[in-house]
Amino acid sequence: MVRSGAGVAERVTRAQRGDRVGDSPVRPDGAQKTRGEFAFSSDLWMDAMLWGKTLRSPHVAARIRSIDTGPALAMPGVRAVVTAADVPGRPTFGLELPDQPVFASDVVRYHGEPVAAVAADHPEAARAAALAIVVDYEPLVPLVDPEAAIDAAPIHPDGNVFRHLVVRHGELGASGDVVVEGNYEVGMQDQAFLGPESGLAVPAEDGGVDLYVATQWLHVDRDQVAASLGLPADRVRLHLAGVGGAFGGREDVSLQIHLCMLALRAGRPVKMVYARDESFFGHVHRHPARLWYRHHATRDGDLVKVEARIVLDGGAYLSSSNAVLSNAVCFAPGPYRVPNALIEGYAVRTNNPPCGAMRGFGAVQVCFGHEAQMDKLAAALSVDPVELRLRNALERYDRLVTGQVLTGAVPVREVIRAAASHPLPVPQDPAGTMMALPGGAGATADPVHVRRGVGFAASMKNIAYSEGFDDFATARLRLEAGADGEPIATLTVATAEVGQGFVTLAQQIVREELGVGRVVLAPASTAEIGSAGSSSASRQTWMSGGACQLACATLRSELIVRAAELWECAAAQCLFDDGEVVRVETGERLLVRDLLVPAPLETTEEYHHRPTRALDADGQGDAHVSFMFAAHRAVVDVDPELGLLRVVQISTGQDVGRAINPVQVTGQIEGGVAQGIGLALMEEIVVSEGRVRNPSFTDYLLPTTLDMPDVVATVVEELEPDAPYGAKGVGEPPAISSGPAVLAAVRDATGLPVTRAPVRPQDIAYAWRGGA
Amino acid sequence: MPPEEPLTGSAGPADTPAYERVEPYELVVNGTRMTVEDAWLGESLLFVLRERLGLPGAKNACEQGECGSCSVLLDDVVVCACLVLGVDAVGSRVETVEGLTASGEVADIQAALVEAGGVQCGFCTPGFVVALHDLLRRAPSADDMTVREALSGNLCRCTGYGRILEAVRAVQWQRGAGVSTGEGPGDGA
Ligand code: FES
Ligand code: FES
After folding, report:
1. Is the pLDDT of residue A219 over 70?
2. How far is CA A609 from CA A404, A468, A530, A547, in A?
3. Rounded to a whole number, what is the distance in Å from the CA of A573 to chain B's nearest CA?
4. Of A537, A549, B112, B125, whose CB count within 10 A is highest?
């Protein structure tokens, strides 16, 4: 089996192994998904399975005097009813701290908080039984104003202020020649992933439970479920079921504990699928924000100081509010050099719906503020807004307002120039189709009134978890010979594939490193492998990608050792070259397949990013691993009389480090832009006095094919020194400055201040009539 | 303000007699007669397909007619299966993504969606396959605005639609349908 380098005929060509880092192979699960054969968490099914249903509070705030489950238990087909009294272990859960009850016991703190759950033979039987549960509530006056919450009587034993964070940087007394000030507001956005929360819990013979569920992080769910079930972690096994999108909304536990409790109580498998209205109550949302800013600059346009006050409404429970606030404060100035800063942030508890992670968290909210301020400053200085941004753009080795020095790739100017340099779209054709006008099929806009505006925005965000958190990723790689002798690489990771395409990247990485064409991904499960961390914070390409790369490197070394043994030479005299081990002095070559004949190879590796530190009392510290930058230009047509808008084009430059799969990068950019446009123009959970008014896709509007403009993107590739392949994340930046660019374009078209996202038709139409 | 009803995650009021059992009935799905046993009166066609007939291809993103993830053909017309009662489909021909896949008639649409990067989480994808099949059959050379209008009832939260529209152009080009804009499958981005 020792073969010289001439054995060409038997070598698998690079083309066959193809699809490596930098190529754009198709998703391994793509074909299945188009055929309807891919099993999402709502597609699961088992013999004798029951259906679960949650009973939720109709009140925003209330004391629970009593709960009578008797009438529900007496109904036909009902197999289990559980309430707070039945939680076997820890009565609470939570991502950062367990402050949220599994079921409300004595107090209800938000509209839709779970109170009980039922398992029955049919979903309708479960629904009817849930409605038959008698809960005696004593309604309380809800606390719904986040500003008032800071000093109000606590509505939870942990108090109302989740976190108060102040950044003090440089000379706090500094001031500029030119000062601009503004107040801004961001509404509550929903992740609105299309696959509803769903899962199947199966009681196991060992007294534990197997839960098949759509989530972003199996292990953190597992730990919370096990704690509340009072079971050791190894008896609670979470298996990733097909995930229909996530965007942060699956980072917190929703139905996981309820479902396991029902299955264990009933002794039968239980499936639960939230209807869309329940999904709106069942997961956390993007924090609404109130922002105040004051920017100081020299007459020449150099930023001198940024002052800001940020209040995030975290709703009833903590979720990831602390991390969201940290980002909001840290990135409050945007991607600009700011020598002096005083930034104060609050994340507070109210009786509004709980808020937590959503794509770009923290950075999204403040971007509406800092970018509106940059435009105001440009106007005050009579300079071009793009020029002002270029002038103040961060560079490598600059300091953030947290004191952290930027040591990685910082192509802020490049992304700004890229976004600004795409050709503008052709002007609106007055004789063109009605569909292309604001309002579209409504056929209401009068072309004569339609004005076009152009707006610009830039942004930055961190990658991975911050402030001291070690969100490592684990990968196991097994190399063995297939039936035909050709090597098969099997990769086991707990990485949640939520649609982002990590499964494709994982295959590309193994092919790149080992030259092995056949790469199989084993199912993700806590029973098989250690944590991969969360599929959030744009971190999996780097973190799970890094773990895969490490595992490949280990196996490459072992292949070299095996070859050296066969050749009876030193391992140092052998190289790994494109799927073969080469003996340098003789040119002899061994194929991976040959080296696997004695036995398969396997390794498990953990990848850790460099350590970070918590922010200190002045908000200073190296809190972050790395940063991504993006810029967006929006072209928007507005009919100000009617307040109707149509986004004509988004152009963008995005810093990705390196595009491991360019087509997938494009998909992330376009998808993120859609969510940014959504937040700017139409997406908002309307909450009044704590009550959610629009928990449906009828009333919560999402961008459709008719709302989406052309997206022209330039991907800026400047390799990130620490990152595997130099690749940063790509998921979040497109959702950050796209929305602020749209609002800037609306301001440009109308001359109105437009300080609120989403901007509603009435905001424009009333102001236009009043002011124009 | 609506009356304060306990929230259970379903829109219907408590007293809807939706859980009345019905006699077994027959549906013709993908050309095959199938018997629906043990069903309840209020079950949607979507629920019957997914939970009783083992055809989970049509998805359940909203169950109120807003997202198109449940698109199926009912006597050759695209409908939201979530808005049709199972029993109301008796006597009609139901075609699902599984049936269209088996017949091979959407193979090029499916391949183009994967190839163009129009599939991310994939939850919307079966609905898009059905809607696109219907559109391109009716209007093979539909221009961009017509395509957008035809697909505007299908929500996708992941892709921003760019790669999906790219896939449509690719299929039109491959099928040799002279698209009104006269463009080949260039990069829309
Ligand atoms: S599930 Fe039928 S339209 Fe959404
Ligand atoms: S691919 Fe996820 S909803 Fe369309």
Report:
1. yes
2. 16, 11, 16, 10
3. 42
4. B125
